[in-house]
Amino acid sequence: MKAEERRKNIVGMLMASKAPISGSRLSAELGVSRQIIVQDISIIKASGYDILSTHTGYVMQESPLVERVFKVHHTAEQTEEELSCIVELGGTVVDVFVWHKVYGKISADLNIFSQHGIAQFLQGIQSGRSTELMHITDGYHYHTVRADNEHTLDAIEGELRGRGYIVPEP
């Protein structure tokens, strides 16, 4: 794993976690020394992320990233293409949620920011242990997408719209 990808993984893990993550855990999960993690955290902090070092681990305080919610519709066969479109343009798929007429909002954290993450998600779905939330609302669902800037979110929205995934507003 290259340094840039490893740092992106660290940011993703910290943003997804509500509890501190120890340097030892990051080191073990990413297959590098604890010293490399310390160096990576310094570089990540220098790039604008507010990471707090505590006695129990690292915590992401506030993200400099921007978010947007997209209402989308597609088939199960198009899920990989939809997620790849977002990730390849620099976005992170933070979550998926649907609005059920009886239960209200049903959501699941995804934190998908790489092709590897997409593959893991699809493998879980294809194993037959579960189905995508969109199936309970006939393919309609929402994604919170996070990116470095509004320009990237605009590009993602344009690509999703061009592929016919964005649900037009009434």
For the structure shown, list the relevant keywords.
170 residues; alpha+beta; two-stranded antiparallel sheet; 25% strand
Provide a descriptive summary of the structure in words:
- Helix 2 (23-30) packs across helix 3 and helix 4 packs antiparallel against helix 5.
- By secondary structure, the chain is an alpha+beta fold.
- It has helices at residues 3-16, 23-30, 34-46, 79-88, 115-126, 150-162, and strands at 51-54, 57-60, 66-73, 92-100, 104-112, 140-147.
- The chain has a 4-stranded antiparallel sheet, with helices on both faces.
Helix content: 40-55%
Strand order of the largest sheet: 3-6-4-5
Portion in beta strands: 15-25%
**Tally of contiguous helical segments:** 6
| N- to C-terminal distance | 45 Å
Briefly say what this structure is.
The chain has 170 residues and is α+β, with helices and mostly antiparallel strands. The chain contains 6 helices and 6 strands, in the order H-H-H-E-E-E-H-E-E-H-E-H.
List the helices and strands and how they pair.
Layout: H1 3-16, H2 23-30, H3 34-46, E1 51-54, E2 57-60, E3 66-73, H4 79-88, E4 92-100, E5 104-112, H5 115-126, E6 140-147, H6 150-162
Antiparallel strand pairs: 1-2, 3-6, 4-5, 4-6
